[in-house]
Amino acid sequence: MRIGELAERAGTTTRTLRYYESLGLLPARRTGNGYRSYDEEDLRLLQQIRTLRDFGFELEETRPFVDCLRSGHPAGDSCPASLEVYRRKLAELDECIARLGAIRERVGTQLVRAERARAELETAATAPGGAPEPHCELAPPGQ
Amino acid sequence: MRIGELAERAGTTTRTLRYYESLGLLPARRTGNGYRSYDEEDLRLLQQIRTLRDFGFELEETRPFVDCLRSGHPAGDSCPASLEVYRRKLAELDECIARLGAIRERVGTQLVRAERARAELETAATAPGGAPEPHCELAPPGQ
DNA sequence: GTAGACCTTGACCCCGGCGTCAAGGCCAGG
DNA sequence: CCTGGCCTTGACGCCGGGGTCAAGGTCTAC
């Protein structure tokens, strides 16, 4: 199949597939006229990548899984390298959750304190405002 | 004081201060020769910004706090707009923590499953005796 | 008078993961 | 033959929060 069909079947875009190819993550064969050509196996690899990415894995982290599948294993996580990525990700998630929890505590404390301080000053009502979209991207040990 | 001194006292860089000014977050007066000039009040504002940023607030989110301080309030969170930011941040943090927790569960489950699958293969493939390192002889990269 | 430490503006670079043109090739249907 | 829909490569944009030059102005100390 060609790039457009693969993109559609995987629920992504052609731009994304070209990008993955540029990373060497999902190379494509070529037909006579230079068009990229993919098969069902490529669809599986791509699905593996997209699934992991939905979990918040970076593209580079999906590479062991893809290599694992390509080397003939039944699942992308059948190889030690993939398990290692799982473990690293777990540690990363734990640390991230702990950090966010600590911040949550401190912000919560600040809010209560500030609300109390205001209550003492005056009992004016605050106007409720619109609520923009909260966004959360799981960032690794970002420094 | 000039920009270098303020930066040093606040533990940041001159580049950062110029950046904040470009955002209109921390404007500076100018002396005759064009140098930026700051006072102790600016240091307080800057400290408020840096503190919130360390909590993971985006720069734009610190604006209400800075405005609050500048309008003469004793603390940056003495104004309703700041409290609103606190509340939004709490909700954001809660949602983020919950999402990460859910992912953590799923990744953990996957790891256990994959480890068990591998253990079955190992015991099936390796004869009785010592159990060496769970090392898989997969062709590294390049295939 | 000159070194050197400070200051100014402007401009490009970084990170990941693509979105979005732009200019042009290839192929099928009417 | 033309249109339209796919495909190709290349290149710039974006997001946040600055880092890091570059080229030059200003002030102080010796």
From TrEMBL, chains A, B:
Lineage: superkingdom: Bacteria
SMART domains assigned to the protein according to its UniProt record, in alphabetical order: HTH_MERR
CDD domains: HTH_MerR-like_sg3
Entry-linked InterPro entries: DNA-bd_dom_put_sf, MerR-type_HTH_dom, MerR_fam
Membrane recorded as keyword: no
Gene3D superfamilies in alphabetical order: 1.10.1660.10
Listed PROSITE patterns: HTH_MERR_2
Region: Disordered, residue numbers: 122-143
Keyword set, alphabetical order: DNA-binding, Transcription, Transcription regulation
Signal peptide residues on this chain, from the entry's feature table: none
Protein name: MerR family transcriptional regulator
Annotated organism of origin: Streptomyces antioxidans
